[in-house]
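Final report, section 2: Outcomes. Of the targets proposed, Purine nucleoside phosphorylase is the one most frequently requested by collaborating groups, and we therefore present its record in full.
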Amino acid sequence: MCSIDCCSNPRGKAGEKLDPSNASNRPIIPTPNGELYPYEVIQEIADFIVKGSNMRPKIGIICGSGLGSLADIIQDAKVFEYEKIPNFPVSTVEGHAGKLVVGNLEGAVVMAMQGRFHFYEGYPLAKCSMPVRVMKLCGVEYLFATNAAGGINPKYSVGDIMLMHDHVNMLGFAGNSPLQGPNDPRFGPRFPALVNSYNKELINKALEIGKQMGIEANMHVGVYSCLGGPTYETIAELKALRMMGVDAVGMSTVHEVITARHCDMKVFAFSLITNKCATEYSDKKDDEANHDEVMAVAKNRQKACCELVARLIRQIQASS
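The predicted structure is given below as tokens.
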């Protein structure tokens, strides 16, 4: 690690004394991730959305790659483009429309993100998961997070749906967390527990809905892991993840779930398996994952995913 003298010296000569009265010579201290979006800024964003939609949502939905049609089934929708929401980031990934939709779905007021923010886009995790806190201050009690993922479990097929009941936070292993920096107790505790992060009651309801839809053979309950991306994983990495008990892998969701649990939201999440991960060495190009394949599979399975979400929301609303 370099010294403060080295980093603060514009000429890069360690040990050389600088004039502290000269502003250009003062060291740049980065803002801690936890302070990128203080409570007051999050509240301003939430107030903007609630006032603009004249609705206070109960359920938040994050649409994964190619699954933006989940937001298209919302009725009486008020649409906010990310770039027009004060202090809101902009998604740069194909398949992520960059819109926030607030409206009614199965009798419940929901807000859905058509496009999320990823670590590989250059955003810190605190910024990637900031919209979850916006949802909380808008009134959201339940977070539905969806993603497109690669299937590591050999029993999984392309087009299957994996309900997430746990995760392996590989980014966290590297010391990256959306909760890094000072903790604001108005959001949640300093050291939140993540055991039972994924609501068991909602998982069981979703499994029953899958039986009613006739897709139970294509549904699983498994463990998801988030890697940083944007590269797809190597064979050795995939083998290691499988040994750790991971069933599907992607580049999102985990930090959103951590943030949601920090502020005491109930979480339901699922992965659409858009490709089978190669765990053996081969020269075949067909074994290599690609974004076009992800988008194509997601498009073909949109209807089933939308129906699953809609029916689950109907049950939540009926029991409230």
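The chain is about 30% helix and 20% strand.
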